[in-house]
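step 3/5: co-fold with adenosine-5'-triphosphate
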Amino acid sequence: MADRFRGVPFVAKRLLGAALVLLVLATVLYALFYLVPGDPAQLACGERCSPAQVAQVRGQLGLDESAHAQYLHFLQGLFAGRDYSSGTSVQHCAAPCLGLSRQNDQQVTTLILAGLPATASLAFGAMVVWLTLGVGTGLLSALRRGGATERVLTVLTLAGTGTPVFILGLLLMMAVCAYLQWLPFPSYVPLTQDAEQWAWNMLLPWLTLGLFESAKYARLTRSSTLEVLAEDHIRTFRAYGVSERAVVTRHALRGALPPVIALSAIDLGSMMGGAMLTEQLFGIPGLGRLLIDSVRSVDLPVVVGVVLVIGTAVVVANAVADVLYALADRRVVLS
Amino acid sequence: ACSGPQDGDAKPAAGDAKPAKGGKLTVLNSDTQSDFDPARLYTSGGGNVPSLVFRTLTTRNREAGEAGTEVVPDLATDLGTPSENATVWTYTLKKGLKFEDGSPITSADVKYGVERSFAAELSGGAPYLRDWLIGGDSYQGPYKSGKGKKTLDSIETPDQRTIVFRLKKSVGDFPYLATQTQFTPVPRAQDTGTKYEEHPVSSGPYKVVRNTNDGERLQLERNPHWSEKLDDQRKAYPDTVDVRSGLDSAVINQRLSTSSGDDANAVTTDTNLGPAELAQIGQDKSLKARVGVGHFGYTNYLAFNPDVKPFDKPGVRQAISYAIGRSSVINAVGGSSLAEPATTFLPDQKAFGYTPYDHFPAGKNGNPEKAREALKKAGYKNGLTITLTHSTEEGEMGPKVASAIQQSLAKAGITVKLKGLEGNAYNEKRWDADGSPGLFITRWGADWPAGYPFLAPIFDGRQIVKDGANFNNAKLDDPAVNKEFDEISGLTDLDAAAKRWGALDSRIGEQALTVPLYHPVYQRLVGKNIRNVVISDWTGVLDISQVAVK
Amino acid sequence: MTPQPNGPTPDSAPVPVADTATGPTGDRAAGALIDVRGLTVDFPAGDESVRAVDGLSFRLSAGQALGIVGESGSGKSTVAAALLGLHHGTGARVSGSVEVDGIDVQAASVRELRRLRGGTAAMVFQDPLSSLDPYMAIGDQIAEVHRTHAPHVSRREARRHAVTVLDRVGIPDAARRSRSRPHEFSGGMRQRALIAMALACEPRVLVADEPTTALDVTVQAQILDLLHELRTETGMGLVLVSHDLGVVAGNVDDMLVMRNGRAVEHGPVGTVLAAPREAYTRELLAAVPRVETPRTPVATAGAVPASAPASGGDLLLEAVGVRREFGRGKNRTVAVDGVSLSVAQGETLGIVGESGSGKTTLGRMLVRLLEPSGGSVRHQGRELTGIRSDLQMVFQDPVSSLNPRRSVGESVADPLRAAGALTDAEITRRVRELLERVGLDPRWYHRYPHEFSGGQRQRVGIARALAPGPRLIVCDEPVSALDVTTRAQVLDLLAQLQRDLGLALVLIAHDLAVVRQASDRVAVMRRGVVVEEGPSDRVYDAPRDPYTKSLLAAVPVLDPVEAAARRAARGSVGALLGTAAG
Amino acid sequence: MTVQDVLTPGAGAPPAPGPAAGARGVWRRLRGRPSAVVSGAVLAVLLLAALAAPLLTALSGQDPYTYHDELVDSASGGAPQGSFGGMSGEHWLGVEPGTGRDLFARLVHGARVSLLVAAGATVLQVAIGVAVGLAAALGSRWADQVLSRVTDVMVALPMLVLAIALTTVVSDDFPRPLLLVLVMGSLNWGGTSRVVRAQALTLRGLDFVAAARLGGSRPVRVVRRELLPSLAAPVITYAAVLLPSNIVLEASLSFLGIGVRPPTPSWGQMLSTATTWFRADPLYVLLPSALLFVTVLAFTVLGDAVRTALDPREAGRLRVGTRKEKTRG
Ligand SMILES: Nc1ncnc2c1ncn2[C@@H]1O[C@H](COP(=O)(O)OP(=O)(O)OP(=O)(O)O)[C@@H](O)[C@H]1O
Ligand SMILES: Nc1ncnc2c1ncn2[C@@H]1O[C@H](COP(=O)(O)OP(=O)(O)OP(=O)(O)O)[C@@H](O)[C@H]1O
Ligand SMILES: [Mg+2]
Ligand SMILES: [Mg+2]
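step 4/5: write C-alpha cells
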C-alpha cells in the first residue's frame, strides 16, 4: 500500500476540487430557486408596492435581466467584484462578491461575516459538549456493557436525541433560567466584546445542541469501541495486565475514533450553516437564521452565499478530519 | 374599542406609583429592525421603536384604548390646513425643533425625507404618496440613479417652517398619512443612501448609539437636543432603551413572565401571548395583572374570486356565509381571548366607522339550514364540492383554520377540498388578480384607523392591480361604489367620513363578496417593573414612548 | 546504539530469584512456579462444545523450561492461555486448578489477574502479526506495558527501555524503528516486538506460544539464546509451545507431548527424544524434515526436469529488477531493491532469508497485490498489470487473512462462487473436500476463524488459495504454524498438486529443511536483494555467500547435547550474530 | 482421493448438509436475547398500531379530523376542558387544544406517517450512503475525489433549504409522504457515506480483502461478502440513530409547512405544535414525546442487538451464559 501522506498540499488540492463542486452547486441552487414561487422584487418592495414601483425595484436588483445574464453577473461579482448604487453614492463590492441581499441592500459578504462568529461560537462549543459527552458516555457504556450504568446512560442520551431540539432547548431554558434561575435567559454577546459574558450566554445553546447530538456520538463510539475490543491486539494488552480502562481509552478508542471524527467533521461543517432551530430559539444572530430568513424571502444571493460558505466549511472540516484520520491510522492513504 | 366585553384597556401595572424618569428599558422582540430607514419603514402611525427616533408631521395620540386612534400634531403645529377642496395641505413646523446634532429642522428636511422615499434603492413603505402627490407616479427620487427630475415640485417649502403638499385629488385623510415615517425630516447632507439606516439622524427623544447586525440590536440613548416642551406625545421616561430582537416568541413571553434581572424592565413591541401561554396565565393572578389587551384594525376573512365557478353565484357565496361556524375558527386561532367574531368587514372600532350588521346570520356555529336553502336557490340541491386554498404555514391562514371551515361547511352539505400552498406561493396566488383561487383565507389590516385604507384597496374598482399585488379579490368595480369612495375620501370632517364608511361597508357586505371571520385581539405581557402601560387601539401594541421602569 | 544481544539489559532491574536450585527434571518442590492439575477446557461451538484440553497436569519450577509439542489443534495454545487466565469471560469452560507463582488463576480477582498478567507471567502470542495495536507506535506499546507493571517509571524512561529491549531482540536501528507502527514491520519483526514486550516486564514466567515461527534461523537462534540466558541468569521459568522439535530440543528441560487435548508423553527432553515411549511421539520424530536430506525430485507429468533452469517457453512468472520502497523522506525503507527472479511452470522456487529482508513484499508483488515502484513482473512473457485468479497467495498472517465475520467454509467457497460455474451443492462439497485435503474436519465448514487454532487457520488459508485452481501459489510461510506431521501432509499435498497440475509454487519460509525438501531452486534474500540463487541442492550443499553459510549453521538440531554445544559456540561469536541480524 | 478429485467438483464426498448458517445463525442469536425480543415486540406493536389505525380509531369511535369545539375552553387559549387534557371514555387520551380533535386517533394515525416516512428515508439514506461511501473508498482515486467532494457538498447543503425549494417546486399532486422520503433520503446520506468510507478505507487494507480479490472476486462481490459484514455494525448503529433524527426532521419540515399536508397528522407535526403547551397541557406534549422516545429506544436496542448478533466473536459470549463472570478478561 502506498504511503502518500501529505498534509498541507493535500488540503489545498482538496479545496480546489471542492471549489469546483461548489460552483456547480451554486449553479444548481440558482436554477432551483428560479423555480421557487415568490417574486423577489415584490417581496423586497413590500406587498403594497405598485407594479411600477416593483418594476423599478426589479431593475434595481437586476432581476429584469435574463436568467443567464443574472448568473453571469453573479459569476463576474464572484471573481472580479461589482458596483452597486447605494443611492447617494456607488458602493463597490470587491471580489469575491456574492452580491447584495435583495431584502436590505447589504452586501452578502457583510451579512455572512456578521453571522459567522456567532455560528462558529455555537458550533465549536457544541462540538466540545457532544464530543466529551458523547464519546465519554460511549466509552463508559462500552466499558460497563450490560450493566445498569450502561442502561441509564443509554436512556439518558437517547432522551437527548429523541427530543426535538426546540423542545429540548425550551425545557432546558425553563428549568435553568425560569424555574431554578441559575442563569439569566441567554442573549448573545460577541466574544470580542466580553469573553466571560459570551461563555455564560452560550452555555445553554451549547448544552442543548451538544446534548441533542451527543446520543449519536455515544452510540457510534460505543459500537466501534466494542468492534475494536473484539480484535486480537486488544487481547495482547489484556494479557499484559493493562487495566480495562487503559485498554479502552488508549487502544480501543484509537481504533474507534475514525468514524467519530468523520462524523464530527460533517456535523461541525454543516453546523457552520447554523443550527437553525437552536439559533432561532436562543436568538443567536448566526448564519442559520440568516439562511432560513433568506430562503423564505427568496433572497437568492444570500441563500447561495451562505450555502457556499457552509460548503467551504464542510470541505475544510472534512479535509482536516481526513488528515487526522490518516494520522491515527497510518494504513490509510491520503489521496 | 367600543364594543366587546373586555375589561377596559390596560392600566398601569405597578400600582399607582407615579412613573419617573431614569433607568434602562429593555425591549425583547422577535422581528429584527432590519429596516431602520424612515423611507423604507411601513409602520402604522410612525411605528413603535422608530417613533422614539423619528418625529413626523403628525402622530397618533399616545393614549390607551379608543382615544389612541386619534391623530395629533407632532412636528407640525396642527393637523394641517386643507385648501382647494383638500387637494392642498399646508403644515407649519413648531419653532426651535432640532436634530440630534443641534442643527435646526427645516421644512426642506421634511421635503427631502419624502422625496428620498421614492428612490428605488429605498423601496418599501405605503403606496399613498405615490398615488396622491402630483407627479408622484413618475418621480424616481433625488438620487443619481433615478431618471428625470431630482426634486418633486408638488412639495413646496416657501419658508423654513412651512411645507405644502399638492395632491391630485381631495384627500381628507392626509393628516393620518403624515404620521408615517416618510414624513420624518432627513438632513440631505447626512444622507448616506442605503447606509442611512445604520445611523439615522434623530429628531425624537432618543438617538441611535449602536445598531448591531442590521437591526439585531439597537441601543438608544437620550437625544439632548430633543425638547420635552416641543413634544407633548412622547414621555421618554427611561434614560436608555436597549432593543434586542431575533428572539423566539415563546422565549420572549417566558422571559417576561419570569422577569428576572434586566427582564423585569422589559417589554415587547411585537410579540403577543399565544394560546398556550394564555391557558397557563389563566391560573396565575399576578401574571394576569401584567397583561395588557390591545386592538388593531384587522379583519380575517374568506375571499371569493367570482370569476371562478361556482362563486360567481351570489347564492353560493351566501350559503357559505350562512354555513360558517365562527367559534371553531376562533378556537383554531387561540380562542375567544385572541379573536372576536366578525360579521362586518370593518374592524369593530369607532374610528373606522364601524356600523354593526350581520346580513347572513350564522350564529356561533353556523346555520346549515339557511345555507342549504340558499344553495337550493342557487341550483345546488344536492350540495356541492368546492376547493378552499390556504397557507401551509401554521397560523391565521393555516391548515387548522381551513379544517375548521371545512367542517362547518360540511354540515351544510358543502364538501370542501383543501389545497395548501407554501407561504410565498400562497401570497403570490392570493394577490394575483387573474389567477387567484375561487375561495381562500386572507386578512386585511389598516394603515391608519379610518375607513379609506381599510376599504379602498379591497373594494375600489380602480385599485384592481393587473400585474402586481391585487387586493380587490372580488374585482368589484361598481361605479356607484367608486363614486362613494371619492366622495367620502375628500371629506375633511373625519367623524362624518367615518359614518359614511360604515354605511358603505354594510352596503358592500350585502353582496357577500367576503365572509368576515374574526378580528384578532392582542394580549401583551410586560416585565414586572414596567409602569405606565399604554396600549392604543391604533396599534394594539404597548407604546414604548410611554413606559417607565421607575 | 550497538546491539547487545547477549549482554544484560542496562535498565533491567534484577528479577528476584525464588527457586534457583531446581534440577532440570524438576523436583516436586513446594515452590513450583506453575502448578497445573487436571486442567480441562471446553469451548462452545455451535450447539455442542469442543474439549480442547482434557485433564492436563504439569509443574514448572523457576529457571526451568517446559516444551509443549503436539499436532496442530491439540490444545497447546489453550493451555498457554489458561496459565494467564485468558479464558475468563470468553465463554470457555475451564475446570481443574491452575496455580502460577502461588496465585490460583481460576479464583483470582480482577486485580490479582492483572498483576499476574505481564508482571508475573508474560505471554508471547502465536499470531504476532495481528497482536499489536495498529494505531500505536511499537515503542509506545512496549513502554505502556512496561509502565503498567512499573508505575514509578517515567514515560521517557519506559520509552528508552522499550528501545533497549527491541534492540535486544535484534530489531535493527531500534531507536528509529520503535516509532514505526506494526504494519511497517515485517512478520518476523513483529514477532520480535512481541517478545520484546514480554521481556520488558521482566516476568517470572514466560509463556511463549510459537515465538519464532516468523523468524529466520539466525534470529531464531539469537532469540532462543536470549531466553536461555534470561533463564539461567534470572531464574525465569519458560513454557515454550512449539511444533519445531529442533527448537524444543535445544531449549527446554522437560517436554510434554500433546494430542487431542491430552498429554501423551511427559518427561525430560533428552529421554523423550532419544527413547520415545509412545507411538505418536515416534511418529512426530520421524516426520521432522532434515536439512541434510536432498529433495526427492517431483515427477512432473511431461514437464521439464525440476532441476533444469526454466526455459523460455515454460516461463510462467518473471520478475525483472523489481523494487519497492515504503515511506518517504526520513522514513523511507527500501524493502525490495532490484530483484530478478523467474518461476517456470510446475516449478517450486524457495525463498529464504533474513526476517525483514523483503520476502513478503516480493511475494505480494509477484501476485500483483502490490505495485512495484520499479522494474516489472511478467506473466508468460506479458507485463502483469492486475490481479489474476490463477496467481494465488497464502498469507503470512493467518488471522488477518480470514474475515472474522464469515465462516471459514464460506471464505474457501468464495473463489468458487466468484467463478460462478458451480451449483451451491457442488460448491459446498468441493469446499469440504478442500478442507479435508488440508487436514481439517469438513464439518467445521460453519465455524468462524476465532474458533480455530493457529495451524488450523493457516490450513484454511491454503485451502482457499487452492480453490480457484491456480497455476501458481505464492506461499508466505504456509506451514510455519503447523506441527511436523501436518506440515508433512500439507507439503505432500502441494507436491501432489504440482505433479498433477503443473502448479508452480513460490515458497517463502524460514524453515530451511522445509524449503530444501520442497523446492527445486532456492533464492536467499537479505536486505532486499537476492544474495544467492540456484538449484536447492547446490545452495544447501555448497553455499557460496557467507550469509547463506551462517543461515545453515544456525539450523536447530534435534539432539539436545549437540544443541547446547552449538549454543556455546555461538556465544563466542555473538558479535557476528549481532551484525547478521542488523 | 486423488488431487483430481479435489479440484474437480462433484466427485467423492457425500452431498453437503444444510446451507450456510449466516442469516439463520443471526436470527437464532437474536431470538436468544431478551432485549432484542422486547424491542422487536415493541416495534411490531407500534407498526401494527400504525397499520391498523383506522381499525383502532373505529374501536374508539373517533377519527383524527373532527373538531370538538365543546371540549375546549375557548376563553383560555382553547385548552381542553377537564383534567388530564380532556381524557374521557370517548377520548381515551384527551383532545387537542384549540380544535378538540381526538388525540388517540391522531397519535395512531400519526404513527403511520411518521414511521413510514422516517423508515423509508432511513433506508434510502443508508442505501445511498453505503453505496457512495464504498464506491469512494474502493474506486479509483478519481472516483474517490469526485464522490467525496459530492458527499461534502451534500452534507454541506442545508437540508431545509433544498427541502423547501424542492417541495415547493414539485407538483402538488405528488404524494407527500413519498416526496418527503425522497427528499430526506436523497439529501441526507452524507453522514452514512462518510462513516462507511472511513471504515472501508481501513478494511480494504486487510489481508482478507486481498485474499478475496486474489480469489477472483469482483469488487461488488468483495463488497458484499467481505466488507458489508464488517460495515454492518457501524451502519446499523448509525441507522438506529438516523431513524429518530428523521422523525424529528419530519417534524421540522412539518413545522415549516413543507411536511405532510395537514390535517393529516404526524408525530412530528404534533410535537412541533405542542411545544408551547407543555405547561398548560403537559399530556399534549408528553404523549407524542413518549411515543417517539419509546420508538427511538426500541430501535436503538434492537440495532444494538442485531449488531451483536452479527458478530460471530460475540456469539460464544452470549450463549454460554458466562453472565456472572466479569467481561474484563
Ligand atoms: N474459541 C474457540 N471456540 C471453539 N473452539 C476453539 C476455540 N479456540 C480453540 N478451539 C479449538 O480447540 C482446539 C485446540 O486449540 P488450540 O488453539 O489450543 O490448538 P493448538 O494446539 O495451539 O494448535 P496450533 O498448533 O495449530 O496452534 C482446536 O480444535 C480448536 O479448533
Ligand atoms: N507497509 C509498509 N510500510 C513501511 N515499511 C514496510 C511496509 N511493509 C513492509 N515494510 C518494511 O519492508 C521491509 C521488508 O518487509 P517484508 O514484510 O517484505 O519482510 P519479510 O522478508 O517478509 O520478513 P519476515 O520474514 O519477518 O516476514 C521491512 O523492513 C519492513 O519494515
Ligand atoms: Mg496454537
Ligand atoms: Mg514476511
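step 5/5: annotate
The first strand of chain D starts at residue 72 and ends at 73.
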